[in-house]
Amino acid sequence: MSTTPGAKSRSTTPTVFEQQRAELVREIAVGMEQVLQNMNRLNRNLESIISVGNEFGSVEALWSRFENFMSRPAEEPEASDRRKEEGQAEGQSELPDEEMKNAEA
């Protein structure tokens, strides 16, 4: 196995291809670092948006209860009044049990 002087000098100095490849690898590494930084920034922004949204959870629940209350049909209070009247017609009183005992005594 003989080594030629040209082969030895080629191994110590990079070729044009190797220089371009090294430059492209460096650019790719810089680009990937920028992508990673931007993804971290996006993640922090999303976390802050989610935390702000979570602060409105109790307000949303309150408004939902209000909406459900307001969307009830107007007949419902009348139906509860009719049930009270039916209970009195059957001989039942609206007095609590303790007041009923005091009234019987």
How would you explain this protein's 3D organization?
Helix content is about 80%, strand content about 0%. The termini are far apart. The longest helix has about 40 residues, at about 15-55. It is rod-shaped, with a radius of gyration of 41 Å. The protein is built from five helices and no strands. It is an all-alpha fold. GO terms for molecular function: microtubule plus-end binding. It is found in: Chromosome, Centromere, Kinetochore; Cytoplasm, Cytoskeleton, Spindle; Nucleus.
Concise synopsis of the structure shown:
This protein is mostly helical and 105 residues long.
Number of strands: 0
Computed structural class: mainly alpha
Radius of gyration computed on alpha carbons: 41 Å
Helix content: over 70%
Biased composition (Basic and acidic residues): 73-87
Region (Disordered): 71-105
GO cellular component, one term: mitotic spindle pole body
Organism: Aspergillus saccharolyticus JOP 1030-1
Descriptive labels:
105 residues, mainly alpha
